[in-house]
Design goal:
Blueprint lengths: L12 H30 L5 H27 L4 H44 L2 H8 L1
Amino acid sequence: MSENQNGTAVQGKGLAITGFVLALAGLLLNNVMFGIAVVSIGLGGSGWIMYLWLVVNIAGLILSIMGMSKLKKTGGKRGLGIAGMVVGIVGTVWAIILVLGMAAAAKLSSDFESRLQNELNNIDWEQELNDVE
């Protein structure tokens, strides 16, 4: 474990590194998870994986802040904590935007599907087939 100038052990370095890695993975894979969620919704499922990914982004942000706070108290270098916090904020905001867009698209898809089903049920198919002949 590294030590600060006073000879005491620096705490929080592991939290800062873990937070940075989670935040970076969250930011880089947001669009991939969004694509998986959209395909899932298109196939009749739900987009739960995007909500899970939002939690991963938030966890990276929280761990980075906790690591940075502990490093500040023990006199360690806070660079990775700050980087993790910035990347975590950007990733979390982007994930929230994607979740809101996915929820709106799922709602529109559901409304369209129900209207289409109503229209198809209201068609007099026998009359339509007789008109074709």
